[in-house]
Specification:
This protein has 415 residues and is of the alpha/beta class. 44% of the residues lie in helices and 13% in strands. Helix 11 packs antiparallel against helix 14. The radius of gyration is 26 Å and the shape is elongated.
Length: 415
């Protein structure tokens, strides 16, 4: 990088430098470590927030670090209270069990081709005796340190929602994960999200107190949308999920295709595996013609390929090109058409239907007179061909693409 970059150099270039226990980040270049990264199965899918950390994990792996990927089947039963203004609603044991399987499957997709081990912290917590845990672990957890946590102070202050013993103990439980993996797998580094710094430090402190040895933490930075100033990945519709049942592959691709110009270079560095030369080439082309959106198109395809596989990335790329006049709708495969029909309103029609009425039924116009005005202004297309007269029927037997303006679409099933 670009392939000659050191790990610390690449982390800095990609924007992955944040809080760490290392005094000098070049220490990472001297010793290959075993590390772990974990996700609590509070939902049946990770989000693109988790994906940022996962991409950082892949950077460590590329430079020879050995990963343990943890699914928090035990911690998920409690739920991390950090950043929450009030007590979480507990998930059922069955929910957590199903979510644990789902997260582990996403690990397989994202880290496909990598050598990694997956562990579930419920495997070691289910046999722990409570009294032994308090004596052997709780004895080494200073209350002052736990009480000093910002979210604890916020919960305990006047007007705060308070905090249960279960949530208060969360950082100790996660800290024990680090100790267990340190003892069992020689893991000496935890990688985590920006919001997990306090929980991760609890593990470092516990290892030092129990073993007298040193362990380290490295966290991802919080990614900010430079245009809005808000946390990246938060939308009016909610989180962007990696599970296609929660965020369809098409919606996922569209999200990346529409990211802001100011932040797109940062997102390419964080969310793709393109090296420096490749990123520089994309950005030169982008800056020469921003209207062409080559950076967003590259980002959308690369991220979708990582999360959903190359074939699905190719499908949504092709149907997106068709929607915006760069391909022929009638040449889409049955699978590609089905993918599009899942996203767009679909209406059935036959030869006895008036085309204006079909357009109104599709939701692309409110009345026949409005359809006429759209046609007169050249704003209605059938299969990407401009409609020039109200009575003109350009519909083909089967599926047809109806378009109004630049961004309004429907599918007409014509028989």
């Amino acid at each position: 990088m670009a392939n000659k970059m050191t790990l610390s150099g690449e982390l800095k270039w990609r924007g992955f430098v944040n809080q760490t226990t290392f005094n000098d980040i070049t220490e990472l270049d001297k010793t290959k470590r075993k590390f772990y990264w974990g996700v609590d199965p509070s939902a049946p899918s990770m989000t693109i927030g988790n994906l940022a950390a996962a991409m950082m994990v892949k950077t460590f792996i590329k430079h020879g670090f050995k990963p343990i990927l943890l699914v928090g089947g035990a911690t998920g039963l409690i739920g991390d209270p950090d950043g929450k203004a009030q007590e979480r609603d507990l998930k059922t044991i069955d929910e957590i069990a199903k979510n644990t399987v789902a997260i582990a499957e996403q690990y397989k997709q994202i880290f496909n081709g990598q050598d990694f081990k997956t562990v579930d912290n419920s495997d070691w917590f289910k046999n722990i005796n409570y009294i032994e845990f308090l004596r052997d672990i709780g004895k080494h957890a200073p209350m002052r340190q736990m009480l000093a946590r910002e979210f604890v102070q916020s919960r305990l202050k006047e007007g705060g929602a308070g905090i249960s013993y279960a949530e208060f103990s969360y950082s100790l439980i996660q800290g024990y994960d680090f100790l267990h993996l340190f003892n069992e797998y020689d893991v000496s580094l935890q990688i985590s999200g920006a919001d997990q710094w306090g929980n991760s430090i609890a593990g470092v402190d516990l290892i030092r107190r129990k073993t007298g040895k040193e362990a380290h933490v490295w966290t991802t930075p919080l990614i900010i949308n430079k245009t809005t100033g808000r946390k990246f990945g938060k939308t009016e519709q909610g989180a962007i999920w990696l599970d296609s049942d929660k965020t369809s592959v098409y919606q996922f691709y569209q999200y990346w295709l529409n990211v802001d110009d100011e932040g797109v270079e940062d997102y390419i560095k964080i969310y793709t595996e393109l090296d420096k030369d490749e990123v520089d080439s994309v950005m030169r082309r982008f800056n020469a013609n921003r209207a062409g959106r080559i950076a967003q198109k590259t980002l959308a395809w690369e991220v979708t390929k990582i999360v959903h596989g190359k074939s699905r990335a190719d499908e949504v790329k092709k149907i997106t090109e068709v929607l915006f006049g760069q391909g022929e709708f009638l040449k889409l495969s049955k699978e590609e058409t089905s993918l599009l029909k899942a996203e767009l309103p679909t209406v059935k029609a036959d030869k006895n239907d008036n085309l204006s009425a079909i357009v109104v039924r599709s939701g692309l116009a409110d009345s026949n007179s409005e359809v006429n005005r759209f046609i007169e202004s050249g704003g209605i297309y059938v299969n990407n061909v401009k409609l020039t007269a109200t009575g003109q029927n350009m519909l083909q037997t089967g599926n047809n693409l109806l378009k109004r303006g630049k961004n309004s679409f429907a599918i007409i099933e014509f028989s």
